[in-house]
Amino acid sequence: MPEEMNIEVDEQDKVLGLRTRSDFYGGRLIHRASHLIIQNPIMEILLQKRARTKRWYPGLWEYTVSETVKDETYEEAMKRGVKEELGVSIPLNELFKYFTSDEGTDKAWRAVFLAVTSQREFPFDKREIEEMRWFSQDELKRNIAQNSSNYTPHLITGLERFFEI
Hints:
Layout: E1 5-9, E2 15-20, E3 30-39, E4 45-50, E5 61-62, E6 65-68, H1 74-86, E7 93-102, E8 106-116, E9 129-135, H2 137-146, H3 153-164
Parallel strand pairs: 3-8
Antiparallel strand pairs: 1-2, 1-3, 3-4, 3-6, 4-5, 4-9, 7-8
């Protein structure tokens, strides 16, 4: 099976071409990623805890869905990811984009999407995700302030921006 190909971009998010997924290991090259925040009607946020077998950020809390962008748009990647990871199709709204550089690990332009649903539980692949859990916004802010090492750096950055909206 050929290795997955992902979009490489520059510091301004301009497409440079396609590279193998492993080319991005080590954080030398910049890729694109799409992330989803799912909220319910009482403003809780659903997060996933990454499986401990994942290469990037094993065992840390992360956006509900995160996808590396292949040869597609940010939105197409997110729609694909929601279908693959949660088995559903839900309306999405793009909120913002931001750049992160976690030297030696990961560099990416990231698009954050929001979906609101009353669905409480979603099926998930236990090889990819260890756990999914709803957090109140106050609980999440408190947990990140007290234990930031339990969360991916890009989730913390994205949530800081999300909470300002």
